[in-house]
Amino acid sequence: MGTPASGRKRTPVKDRFSAEDEALSNIAREAEARLAAKRAARAEARDIRMRELERQQKELDEKSDKQYAENYTRPSSRNSASATTPLSGNSSRRGSGDTSSLIDPDTSLSELRDIYDLKDQIQDVEGRYMQGLKELKESLSEVEEKYKKAMVSNAQLDNEKNNLIYQVDTLKDVIEEQEEQMAEFYRENEEKSKELERQKHMCSVLQHKMEELKEGLRQRDELIE
Fold first, then answer.
1. Is 42 within 8 Å of 129 (Cβ atoms)?
2. pLDDT digits over 123-139, tens only?
3. pLDDT tens across 56-99, in order?
4. Residue 101 forms part of a structural domain
5. Is residue 120 domain-resident?
6. How far is CA 69 from CA 54, 107, 108, 143, in A?
7. In-domain check, residue 109
8. DSSP, residue by residue, 114-147
9. CA atoms of 20 and 148, how far apart (whole Å)
10. How far apart are CA 202 and CA 195, in angstroms?
11. Is residue 7 part of a domain?
12. Residue 182's domain spans which residues?
């Protein structure tokens, strides 16, 4: 049985797998780079939010300390002033009312509520972002898995295709050999047919000579009698 013609070239499977592996590696590197960029952006945003919260908390603490200091330093100065200079009851009550007006707990509580609301909003945004990132990673993993399966399936189909091409080439060689054998058989048959015709002709000539000899013998026998 013949072998495939040397002129037919097939693409090595190893090179094709190397190209597919390189493509998968590039996709993985690009995905890692995007994730790293997102992590860096998220970390930078978190740092900015934390610095803003620290600044607001610092301002709130400074304001509270200032109010606390004013609350506890002004009465002592007022008492010392009342010890040296007699004041009326109305002025004392007015001074007490002025001191209490320096403390505004509603404002502090409102700022604290705003800070906690901001923290809750940040945590909610981060939670949604992390959930979206998780879903994106899962989707990317599914796509990569499907891509790998598709690459493996394509490689298998390509191998089957190459095997079928090889089988077709082999069958073509077999057919060519059989055609050559049939042509040889036809040539031999033609030669043998010609030889047979020659043999028949020789046989006919010999038979005719034999008939002539028989006739000569018969005539000789008649003359002898």
1. yes
2. 888 888 888 888 888 88
3. 888 887 877 777 667 655 544 444 444 444 434 444 444 444 44
4. yes
5. yes
6. 22, 17, 16, 63
7. yes
8. HHHHHHHHHHHHHHHHHHHHHHHHHHHHHHHHHH
9. 9
10. 10
11. no
12. 13-224
